[in-house]
Amino acid sequence: MELADKTILLGLTGGIACYKVAELTRLLIKAGATVQVAMTEAATQFITPVTMQALSGRPVFTSQWDARIANNMPHIDLSREADLIVIAPASTDFLAKLAHGQCDDLLSTLCVARDCPLVAAPAMNRQMWANPATQRNVAQLRADGITLLGPDSGDQACGEIGDGRMLEPEALLEAIIAFFQPKLLAGRHVTITAGPTFEPIDPVRGLTNLSSGKMGFAMARAAAAAGASVHLIAGPTALPTPYGVLRSDVQTAQQMYEAALASAAGADLFIAVAAVADWRVAQVHVSKIKKQDGHDVPHLDFVQNPDILAAVAQRPQAPFCVGFAAESDNLEAHGEQKRRKKGVPLLIGNLGPATFGRDDNEVILFDAHGHTRLPRADKQMLANTLIREIAQRLDAAPRQA
Ligand code: C5P
Q1: Residue 309 maps to which CATH number?
Q2: pLDDT of residue 158
Q3: Is the same domain home to 164 and 196?
Q4: Tens digit of pLDDT for each residue in 36-91?
Q5: CATH code of residue 40
Q6: Is 1 a domain residue?
Q7: Is residue 401 situated within a structural domain?
Q8: Which of 18, 29, 74, 287 has a CA-to-CA distance to 83 between 20 and 30 Å?
Q9: Distance of CA 355 to the CA centre of its chain
């Protein structure tokens, strides 16, 4: 319920993408938001107010002259109740009106009358988006502090391909949730490792572990929502890439090491969440090792993988480094030991069996001042809290020479 206590005025303007806003409404409500829908006359040609009322559970407003509001000023009342106005889809015409402060219907008037932030999700044909007049309006809107979400690029309803598609409802929901997060990592470059690694034995077998990647992906999502530019280096996992995050997929510890060292060289912050295999098989078999009945089991030699976190932390001008530690017992003693061994200012400890694959987690923070226990929480909520804790320490830390 990341939008609990938030009221969103969802404004629909004319465009085929209106059908996607039915789904966005459901997602916003599921995330805990109160959704008040207002539509332009053109939007009602694409989706009915009946549908939007049924999905939002509130009467829909389309007219400036709607007498249902006691003082007959829907443009004031509706905008005052909102924490955020979301225009989706935002047509070419509506962007032009917004850029000029024009007020010729309820939605455009309440946008001008608002005292809350406004975000808009453009949706139009690629030529309409590329038109210099639209681009002028977009530049003006940005200068006025309006946030544009998208547009996306790809297939368009008209059959053409290019920029101008509205972002998908799931991406819009992510962007709206992120909009409400304090921008504690604005301007920061963050590298995060996540998930397990997979060390091949032969072409069909390998060594891996039970890490799902959920905690690392939640950290990446929280860091992006806090305004950072995030590079997520992920071991094998089927999790979707968080909105606004750049992702590189790797398989082995060695590949993760190379990707992480290159990425962290330009980063302000490195967060190692991945459960990296400690060993790999010295000689990977090129063909499948055959089982031979009555014969000895195969003998495998192992070599140790590089410690990615320790290697990044030891680099000159290292970013602020944060490690995770999954212990099986005696977390309080092992956590501080591990922090010192890795040479990092902050280590987040958890009990492996109590976190792997689960949606919630309980952690202890170890830093130079001692340790702090955080209560068990959903991994995403916990990640948001951890990003706040990390941002405070990062702001206070001098960059290493
Ligand atoms: O030593 P241990 O595996 O318990 O340390 C855990 C921390 O170190 C995690 O942050 C993990 O991502 C990181 N690590 C690493 N490279 C390794 C092993 C662990 O970056 N080879």
Answers
A1: 3.40.50.10300
A2: 85
A3: no
A4: 999 999 999 999 999 999 999 999 999 999 888 888 888 888 888 999 999 999 99
A5: 3.40.50.1950
A6: no
A7: no
A8: 18
A9: 21
Cα–Cα dist 8/3, whole Å: 9
- Considering the domain boundaries, does residue 301 fall inside one? yes
Q: Do 140 and 219 fall into the same domain?
A: no
- For residue 86, the one-letter residue type is V
Q: What is the pLDDT of residues 345-379, one digit of tens each?
A: 999 998 777 777 778 888 999 999 999 999 999 98
For a substitution probing ligand 1, which of 307, 337, 348 has the most ligand atoms within 8 Å of its CB? 307
Radius of gyration, alpha carbons of the chain? 25
- Asked whether the beta carbons of 141 and 118 are under 8 A apart, the reply is no
Ligand 1 pocket member 264 (CB < 6 A): no
Identify the domain boundary among 148, 179, 210: 179
Does any ligand 1 atom lie closer than 6 A to the CB of residue 256? no
Is residue 199 lining ligand 1, measured as CB closer than 6 Å? no
Residue 122 is assigned to a ligand binding site: no
* Residue 79, amino acid: S
Instruction: Identify whether 158 is a catalytic site residue.
Output: yes
Rounded CA gap, 313 and 318, in Å? Answer: 6
SS3 label, residue 275? strand
Weakest mean pLDDT among 74-88, 184-198, 258-272, 347-361: 347-361
Q: Which residue's alpha carbon is at the smallest distance from atom 2 of ligand 1? A: 325
308 known member of a binding site? yes
211 lines ligand 1 (CB under 6 A): no
Q: Which of 179, 211, 238 is the last residue of a domain?
A: 179
401 pLDDT more than 60: no
The answer to whether residue 184 is domain-embedded is no
User: Which domain does 299 fall in, by range?
Assistant: 189-396
